[in-house]
Design a protein that fits this description.
PH domain-containing protein; transmembrane; transmembrane helix; membrane
């Protein structure tokens, strides 16, 4: 067994375009409200501070790793943030692998190891996902920004002896 990863993908919390846009619109609203407040109001400065804090938090979230996905030694390893457990999915127990969409909704919250209705979800950004079904009927939905490469790596590991 080699310790070389076949596929590696890192997904960050603050790099999805829709939440970035929402945060920037909120910051612009704070700056516009600050601009139109009278000089007599002491709380007007608070709007500028809140606008700058929103922008700083957005920049920090752009570098905050949500989880990383690795395909290695006939398994998929998912590492999350500091206090999350490492999830290892054994590819020997997988009976079906397919590429699909993560969700039909426009807005999706980032999740890590979310168990709902017989599925386990991992998602940070993007529209595509890999759907894995194991022998027990449990479905893993792993969101990916490079779904074609991820699917190719999984199928390659499943075929190798």
């Amino acid at each position: 067994m080699s310790d070389k990863s076949v596929f590696v993908e890192k997904q960050y919390l603050g790099r999805e375009w829709i939440p970035i846009t929402i945060r920037l619109v909120l910051a612009l609203f704070c700056f516009a409200a600050y601009f139109f407040t009278d000089e007599r109001e002491r709380n007007g400065d608070l709007l500028a501070i809140v606008g700058f804090v929103i922008i700083i938090i957005s920049i920090i979230m752009g570098f905050l790793l949500h989880f990383s996905t690795r395909v290695i030694n006939k398994s998929i390893l998912l590492d999350g943030l500091w206090s999350t457990r490492r999830v290892k999915i054994d590819l020997n127990s997988i009976v079906k692998v397919e590429k699909g969409t993560y969700s039909r909704y426009l807005f999706n919250n980032p999740v890590y190891n979310l168990h709902t209705k017989g599925t386990i979800r991992f998602y940070a950004a993007g529209n595509d996902a890999i759907h894995l079904t194991d022998r027990d009927g449990l479905v893993y939905i792993i969101g990916s920004q490079h779904a074609n490469e991820f699917l190719r790596a999984i199928k390659g590991e499943m075929k190798s002896v």
